[in-house]
Specification:
heterodimer; A: alpha/beta; six-stranded mixed sheet; 7 helices; 10 strands; 34% helix; B: alpha+beta; 2 domains; 12 helices; 4 strands; 7% strand
């Protein structure tokens, strides 16, 4: 069963700035898909479209076979809770502590306090941040911030993990760590969508690769390599 | 629902505490605004009091012929009170009373006493002293009736024409002061509200990125908006309480001094007489505006 489906999606910004052109693809449940392309190829726009942060100029996008474009605000919120996001700029809540950043995701889901108190320390322990639960994001290193973002993405057991250039600001050691985490998550049956322009990562993964160039899909291979 | 409310309330408290600087600045601006509006309310009260005092000092007097009997004068008084609704008081002053009043008023002035002695007889005329609750037009109406043929055989003179210019001038000044005061108050309130709006806007703009992230991770509009609205209410409540306490203390301690300056306007009595209205104004401008502004500003960043 496909979890995400793009059907002839085109996204044009003002002044005829075509970002994506007639994009169609499907992502099956449990797949690990990398989206590659040069900077400005349209990778981030594609991810924003999946999250419903942008609307396509034409075409349809489906999440679990429901058209995202036709979702109401409350349904969009519910859908976003089923997607764990990891971003290059981390997108952490800067005024909340490490613990609160993870707990927030459970709180918006309406989880019970007992569950939050039980699960958040576990997730932080697993991610190696149990010593920093009272620190604020700006008190963490880049690698720690990204691990926190991963913890936050995982805590609600989402259906899909979207990682948009998650290693862009990390050193090789932390890069390896994050990618290893994503592979581990995928092995538990979660769908992972990784957007990157890091050749080495893609070539090591040996998973499905969708290559975008000038807003169009130029390649979609089951065991792809980074070829641009 | 209760758990969610407790959560957003805790978020609001935490943000309020963690952004102490911005919270204090916002409360300070709100206090200034509430104080300004409260001050304007007091100025309005004091102004009305002073205007009333001046109005009460305006009167016209009808002097009757020396041979007019007291009963005839009292008949005129009754007719005036019956025919004119705006007449607030008609006071009869007999010629004897007029003499007593005069000697009392000038008891320290020997020139007046000597002049009276030389005249020998009581030179004063009986009179009716009339005040109305309205404009100079109403005094003119009273004067017209008194000067009509009905009373011409009884009345010697009415001093309205001598006072007309003064009455017109006083009422014109009062009307201008009222218009100017209202205009100024309106401008000041608008400026104050804009300042509060922008202060809260700045406070929330600091959290622009956070709001965007909250939406991306799936927080509902309510979950994002509520802590900011609660914070707005907190800013307003604290400012309101500080202002109310300050108003009570200032009204109590400055009451006697202010009464001396304004000729009897009692701040404490004014506060007690208008306590609920003052609470409503302060709470409205503090809490109400804190909530409404937060709602509007957050709405702008929720469009994701």
């Amino acid at each position: 069963m496909n979890i995400i489906k793009f059907e002839n999606v085109t996204k044009i910004y003002e002044l005829d700035n075509v970002i994506l052109q007639d994009i169609s693809f499907e992502i099956q449940e449990g797949e690990f898909v990398s989206i590659v392309g040069k900077s400005g190829a349209g990778k981030t726009t594609l991810i924003r479209l999946i999250l419903g942060l942008e609307k396509p100029t034409s075409g349809n996008i489906f999440f679990n076979e429901i058209n995202i474009g036709q979702m109401q605000s409350s349904h969009l919120s519910q859908m976003r809770r089923r997607i764990g996001g990891i971003y290059q700029d981390y997108k952490l809540l800067s005024a909340k502590t490490v613990y609160e950043n993870v707990a927030y995701i459970m709180e918006i889901e309406g989880k019970a306090n007992e569950e939050i108190v039980r699960d958040v320390p576990k997730v932080l322990e697993a991610i190696g941040l149990s010593q920093k639960i009272n620190n604020f994001p700006h008190e963490l290193s880049g690698g720690e911030q990204q691990r926190l973002a991963v913890a936050r993405a995982l805590v609600n057991y989402p259906d899909v993990i979207i990682a948009d250039e998650p290693t862009g600001n990390l050193d090789p050691y932390n890069t390896f760590e994050v990618i290893a985490l994503l592979e581990k998550i995928n092995k538990t049956g979660k769908t992972v969508i990784l957007s990157t322009h890091d050749r080495e990562i893609i070539n090591k993964l040996g998973k499905r690769v969708i290559t975008i160039e000038d807003g169009k899909i130029i390649r979609d291979e089951v065991k792809g390599r980074f070829i641009i | 629902m209760f758990t969610n409310f407790k959560r957003v309330f805790n978020f609001a408290l935490a943000d309020f505490y963690r952004n102490k600087g911005i919270s204090i600045a916002t409360i300070f601006v709100l206090i200034i605004t509430i104080a300004l509006v409260t001050g304007l309310f007091y100025v309005y009260g004091a102004g009305n009091f002073i205007i009333l005092q001046v109005q009460n000092k305006i009167d016209i007097t009808a002097y009757f012929k020396a041979d007019t009997s007291e009963q005839e004068i009292l008949d005129v008084k009754d007719q005036l009170l019956k025919s004119l609704q705006n007449v607030t008081s008609v006071k009869y002053v007999s010629k004897e009373q007029a003499l007593v009043n005069f000697t009392q008023r000038h008891k320290d002035n020997s020139v007046f006493s000597q002049a009276l002695e030389q005249v020998g007889d009581n030179p004063f005329l009986p009179s009716l002293n009339i005040t109305t609750n309205g404009l100079s037009m109403q005094y003119e109406q009273v004067a017209k009736i008194l000067q009509s043929d009905n009373f011409s055989n009884l009345i010697e003179k009415v001093d309205f024409s001598e006072k007309k210019d003064t009455i017109d001038k006083v009422f014109s000044i009062m009307s201008n002061i009222t218009k100017f005061g209202l205009g100024l108050a309106l401008i000041l309130v608008i400026v104050a509200l804009l300042v509060v709006f922008n202060t809260i806007k700045l406070a929330i703009e600091n959290s622009k990125e956070e709001i965007s992230t909250m939406r991306i991770v799936g927080a509902s509009s309510w979950f994002v908006r509520a802590p900011f609205i609660i914070q707005g209410a907190l800013f307003g409540s604290i400012s309101f309480v500080i202002c109310l306490v300050a108003t009570i203390l200032l009204s109590y301690f400055l009451s006697s001094g202010f009464a001396l300056v304004t000729g009897g306007f009692n701040l404490w009595d004014y506060l007690i007489g208008n306590l609920w209205l003052i609470i409503l104004i302060q709470a409205g401008f503090g809490i109400g505006f804190g909530i409404v502004t937060s709602f509007i500003v957050v709405q702008k960043y929720l469009k994701i």
